[in-house]
Amino acid sequence: MKIAIFSVQSDSHIGIVQDEQIISLTALDPDEFPACLKTFIDRSSELRTRAEKLIEKRVNDDAIFKLSEVKILPPIAQPEKIICVGLNYMDHCKETGMEPPDSPVIFSKYANAIVGHNDAIEIPINSTEVDFEAELAIVIGREAKHVSEEEANDYVFGYTIMNDISARDLQFQDGQWSRGKTADTFAPFGPAVVTKDEVDDPHNLAISLELNGEMMQESNTGNLIFTVPKIISFLSQSMTLKPGDLIATGTPPGVGMGRNPKVWLKNGDKMNVRIERIGMLSNHVIG
Ligand code: MG
Fold it and tell me: Is the pTM of this model over 0.85?
């Protein structure tokens, strides 16, 4: 199931993406399906069955929209946590000149950074070195505390795409990365969340990023140093993961800071991040 939050005129909906269409569950049953993915995740076993039945009935045409005619919103507006894993592809470590870590490198973003598909990324007024990072992101489905690697998949709801926008000058001026990683608009993600049953193996997905039509990053999630179960287990030993939490798993090589000459984002740039089975996240740059 490919689930997206979207708006038409001033109304928000939760819907299921099918090819070039989106079927609004909110339009079909507004009481059961408010435009909130967290609500859906919290009651997912019950609501998924209900959603499947509603869609099977093939509904009224008023509930079907063309994807090109709606505004896609961030799938989760206020996750409790946005956790990111740094340096999680071997070749990316090399291009940044850093040693591959012995255990996952963890940092955070805040909700101020969230934007959705087709939204603008704003260059902060105090940065001239803004970079891109294509990443597979995990969406947590159940409260997870002290979870083993073997059990970890039970706690995954699905997957989405994040572009971990990073102001390198701010990131490395400070002892910690936060200021450079969680500027306003620096956590674009979406457009949809794909449930884990449709992803199959999260460690065998082509991942790429195009900047203005030129391929900058091209890899496979099979190259992750720390796998999805390892990351979930590692985090859950000390912090309870909650439904709707997002975990960005790290970026492959090809980012702007690893290039010669370096490439920094500028006004008018367009980025497309693609992950096999998940979709394509597009954003443009202003500032
Ligand atoms: Mg990253």
Answer: yes
